[in-house]
Write a structure and sequence with these properties.
It is a single chain. α1 packs across α7 and α2 packs across α4. It is globular and about 60 Å long. The chain is built from ten helices and twelve strands. It has a domain of 213 residues: NAD(P)-binding Rossmann-like Domain (Rossmann fold), CATH 3.40.50. It is of the alpha/beta class. The protein has a six-stranded parallel β-sheet, with helices on both faces.
Length: 311
C-alpha cells in the first residue's frame, strides 16, 4: 500500500471524460500529475509511448485513454475499436515495464464480459464465453490487456493492475449522437424533443435490456484508491450493484428533462448485452470503497451540462 501524495503520476487520456476526473482526484490527494493527450503523444506508436514516459519520468501510470462509443459507433468501427484500444495498451504496458515504472493501472471495460454472464458479473466469469457481438472487438481488445498485465507480472514481476468499471455517466459527457453512450444520448433526445414540441422519441431496441451505471467521480475515486491499495493480479469490478431496464431508464430521463411525449421502440435495432450488473464486492473489500452518488441526482447533473445544439 502506498500514498499517491507527492508521486509523479502520468494519466493517459487525462483530458477525457474519465481521465480528467482521475487527474482531479489525484491532485486532491497531493499527487503531481502529467496529462498525456493524443495530440502530443500518439499512443498507437511505440516510439511516442516511449517518449511520453521518458519525457515525464512517472513513478505511476493510469491508462484511461481509449476509443469508445455506443452501440452504433461500435458497429460502425469494429476494426478501429479493436486495433486502437489493443495497440495503445500493448505498447503502454510493455514500455512502462521497460522504463521501470513502479506501477501501472489499466482501466478495462465491462464490455469484456461474455454476453450471457451470470448476473451479477463476477471477475471469475470473464473467460466463460464471447462478448456481446456489437461491442466484442472493443471488449476483447481490453480483455487482452488483462492477459498482458498478468503475463508481465508473472515473468517480470511488473506491478500492473486492471479495474473494470461498469457503464460510466456524469456531467460533461459526450452528447454527439453518432458516438455517445446511452445516458447522454437519451438526455439529448428528450431535451431536443421537448424544445421542438415533438410528439414522440424513438429509442433503439426493445427496452428490456438492463444496465448498471456508475457516476464518473465515484469511478475516479475507486481508481485512485486501487493505485494506492491494490496490487493483485486479478481485475477488480467497479459498480453500484444496481440494475435498471433501459425502458425504465428512458422513463427516468424523460421525467428529469420534463419531456411528456410518447416513447416508441425500434426493435429492428439491437439491445446490446441482455443484462449488465457487476459484483463489486472484491473492490469494496480491497479498497474500502463504495459509490456515493444517487442515480437520479447524477442524471440531473448530466442534464445541467447539456447545451442544446452542441456536440
Amino acid at each position: 500500500m502506498r500514498d499517491v501524495r507527492g508521486a509523479r503520476v502520468l494519466v493517459t487520456g487525462g483530458a477525457g471524460f474519465l481521465g480528467r476526473r482521475v487527474v482531479a482526484e489525484l491532485e486532491r490527494r497531493g499527487a503531481q500529475t502529467v496529462v498525456v493527450r493524443s495530440r502530443d503523444y500518439d499512443l498507437r506508436e511505440p516510439d511516442r509511448v516511449r517518449a511520453a514516459i521518458a519525457d515525464h519520468g512517472p513513478e505511476l501510470i493510469v491508462h484511461c485513454a481509449a476509443v469508445v462509443g455506443g452501440i452504433g459507433a461500435n458497429r460502425a468501427h469494429p476494426a478501429q475499436f479493436f486495433y486502437e484500444n489493443a495497440v495503445m495498451g500493448v505498447h503502454l504496458v510493455h514500455e512502462a515495464w521497460r522504463a521501470g515504472v513502479s506501477k501501472l493501472l489499466v482501466v478495462g471495460t465491462v464490455c469484456s464480459y461474455p454476453k450471457f454472464t451470470p448476473v451479477p458479473f463476477s471477475e471469475d466469469d470473464l473467460w466463460n464465453g464471447y462478448p456481446e457481438e456489437t461491442n466484442a472487438p472493443y471488449g476483447l481488445a481490453k480483455r487482452m490487456l488483462i492477459v498482458q498485465s498478468q503475463a508481465y507480472r508473472e515473468e517480470h514481476g511488473f506491478n500492473s493492475i486492471v479495474v473494470i468499471p461498469t457503464n460510466l455517466y456524469g456531467p460533461d459527457d459526450n452528447f454527439d449522437p453518432a458516438t455517445s453512450h446511452v445516458i447522454p444520448a437519451l438526455v439529448r433526445k428528450c431535451v431536443e424533443a421537448k424544445a421542438n414540441a415533438l410528439d414522440e422519441v424513438m429509442v433503439w431496441g426493445t427496452g428490456t435490456a438492463t444496465r448498471e451505471f456508475l457516476y464518473v467521480d465515484d469511478a475516479a475515486e475507486a481508481i485512485v484508491l486501487a493505485l494506492e491499495r491494490y496490487d493483485g493480479s486479478e481485475p477488480l469490478n467497479l459498480g453500484t450493484g444496481e440494475e435498471i431496464a433501459i425502458r425504465d431508464l428512458v422513463a427516468l430521463i424523460a421525467d428529469v428533462t420534463g419531456y411528456g411525449g410518447r416513447i416508441t421502440w425500434d426493435a429492428s435495432q439491437p439491445d446490446g448485452q441482455p443484462r449488465r450488473r457487476v459484483d463489486a464486492s472484491r473492490a469494496a473489500a480491497a479498497l474500502g470503497w463504495a459509490p456515493r452518488t444517487d442515480f437520479r441526482t447524477g442524471i440531473e447533473r448530466v442534464l445541467r451540462t447539456f447545451v442544446p445544439g452542441g456536440g
